[in-house]
Specification:
The chain is an alpha+beta fold. It has 3 domains: 154 residues, no CATH class; 250 residues, no CATH class; 69 residues. The strands form 2 sheets. A 9-stranded antiparallel sheet has the order 4-5-6-7-12-11-8-10-9. Strand 2 and strand 3 form a beta hairpin. The longest helix has 57 residues.
């Protein structure tokens, strides 16, 4: 999958969305005409009957106003829809020059919704991504199948290079024994951070504080507006109880005043504050600035050859190919993807969030969270004849938080009892080949896994499958995130580096760079 392939697929999805939208508009237009006819008959009978002269003029303008407003709204949407292919071309031109996206959100829009009593039939779903590039906001239909690849492009990363790194991980080449180069210690990182990152962190912290001020002022402003209208409404209610004429005239002025205030907020206040906020940087509104200026350099400090993809993640296709999850229609999202080779061992890592929504469900039913945490895949120096699954024993609390992932993974039918009593208390081991499982899980390997689990501080699942080892920490945490309320201080960087250190030490702890097995 390259830039041109992705652009072609997006244009095809754009055309599909446009066609479905037009079909939906035609259907809703027919329904709308029928509703307007019914309302017209009801209102006209009132306006033309006795006492019609007492009907205020603005009531008679309701239907024309509704028709004009509806028509104008449809016109704007149709125009934007017809021009969207130009936006897609502009986007790819910007991405080719090295620009990147920020504030990415995803949503699904059903083009046709049929309310049938308490049941809603939702048809023709389209997956959308909304994001901004250089203050230009895009809302583009993106097929779920290419979303991970598209987000690589939105991260400003060369997708061909990422594909090559994935190929190194997924091919059948045997890892050659290499000399281990130890990870740089936390003490070394502190020295690097003091020399290279401290001034950048200070500027980002100042920007964050200004961003915090923006949100505080906005909140106070909104409270004053809402409070003012509540007081006004209360005093109006008191007057209407004693003076009916006063209440009738005040109601109209109340509506007009509310509309004027809303218009002022939207047209004057929000643009001023948005412009001011853009001038103070992005660390308050989103984490793009921090990730680009700080976190990316932390990855480079560990190893300059590592590739960091801010919006990238291990996609559903990669997960299905691993064969560790049951065959369901999962929704997979994530971020902070890191790819490369450590001591000659190819790997990829990302924060990952996996949910599942059954096809037949209640209207207000939320997706079931299957996994939320860190997912690490590395090439192993042996190809396995069967899958080995190591699942944590975590008691009642862990059962509640970790059972969803455990119930959705593919486990071999045989449970194996190993000689290490401490390991047996911590984990259940499943494999259909007991000899191979014991061959892999040597006393030293089991000790390494116990050490890794204690570092992970979560529900750590480990899989040996094909020629890969997978460490999935279902800790319900999205690592390496900052926001307007997160103080950007040196201790935060040390904490982030410690998490990275523990993650990559899996390769060293399991000695994945040493080929001690004959193939």
């Amino acid at each position: 999958m390259n830039n041109n392939n992705i652009q072609e697929i997006l244009l095809r999805e754009h055309n599909r969305d446009k066609k479905l939208t037009y079909y939906a508009y035609a259907f809703y237009a027919i329904i709308g005409v029928l509703v307007i006819i019914v309302l017209s008959n009801i209102l006209l009978s009132r306006f033309n009957g006795e006492g019609s002269t007492d009907t205020p003029i603005y009531y008679k303008l309701i239907i024309p106003f509704m028709i004009i407003a509806f028509g104008f709204s449809i016109f704007k949407k149709v125009k934007a829809l017809n021009d969207r292919h130009l936006l897609i071309e502009q986007l790819f031109n910007d991405l080719k020059t090295g620009k990147k996206a920020s504030s990415i959100t995803q949503f699904v829009e059903y083009k046709l919704i049929l309310p049938l009593g308490k049941i809603k039939v939702k048809l023709n779903p389209i997956n959308f991504l909304t994001f901004s590039v250089q203050n230009q906001v895009y809302t583009i239909p993106v097929p779920v199948s290419i979303e991970p690849d598209f987000k690589v492009l939105l991260s400003g990363v060369n997708i061909d290079h990422v594909n090559n790194l994935k190929e190194n991980l997924n091919n059948a080449e045997i890892i050659k024994t290499t000399e281990s180069v130890p990870l740089k210690t936390i003490a070394e990182f502190k020295e690097y951070a003091d020399n290279e990152l401290a001034s950048i962190m200070d500027n980002l912290e100042k920007s964050r504080k200004k961003g915090m001020s923006f949100y505080i002022i906005s909140t106070i402003f909104c409270i004053l507006i809402v409070g003012g209208f509540m007081i006004f409404n209360y005093t109006t209610a008191l007057n209407t109880t004693t003076n009916t004429d006063y209440g009738s005239s005040t109601f109209t002025s109340y509506i007009i005043g509310f509309a004027i205030v809303c218009a002022l907020i939207y047209l004057v206040y929000m643009p001023i504050m948005k412009k001011k906020h853009q001038q103070i940087g992005n660390s308050g509104e989103n984490y793009t600035s921090f990730k680009e200026q700080i976190f990316k350099k932390m990855i480079g400090f560990i190893n300059p050859s590592f590739q960091y993809v801010e919006h990238g993640y291990i996609g559903a296709k990669d997960l299905y190919e691993l064969g560790i999850l049951k065959d369901k229609n999962y929704d997979v999202t994530g971020n902070d993807q890191i790819l490369g080779s450590h001591n000659g061992v190819p790997f990829q890592y990302s924060d990952l969030h996996i949910t599942y929504m059954p096809v037949i469900r209640m209207e207000n039913e939320s997706p079931t969270e299957v996994f939320s945490g860190q997912f690490f895949i590395a090439k192993f120096n042996k190809t396995f004849n069967t899958q080995i699954v190591i699942s944590p024993k975590t008691g009642i609390s862990g059962f509640i938080t970790g059972n969803s992932f455990s119930s959705n993974i593919v486990k071999p039918s045989s449970k194996i009892m190993l000689e290490d009593p401490e390991f047996t208390k911590m984990f259940d081991v499943y494999s259909d080949d007991q000899i191979e499982a014991r061959y892999i899980l040597t006393p030293s390997t089991m000790q390494y896994i116990k050490d890794i689990s204690s570092k992970a501080k979560g529900n750590l699942f480990i899989f040996f499958t094909n020629n890969k080892v997978i460490a999935a920490n279902n800790n319900r945490t999205n690592k390496f995130e900052t926001g307007v309320t997160t103080k950007l201080k040196p201790e935060l960087l040390v904490s982030f580096y410690d998490d990275l250190y523990k993650q990559f030490s899996i390769i060293d702890d399991l000695k994945l760079n040493v080929n001690i097995w004959k193939q």
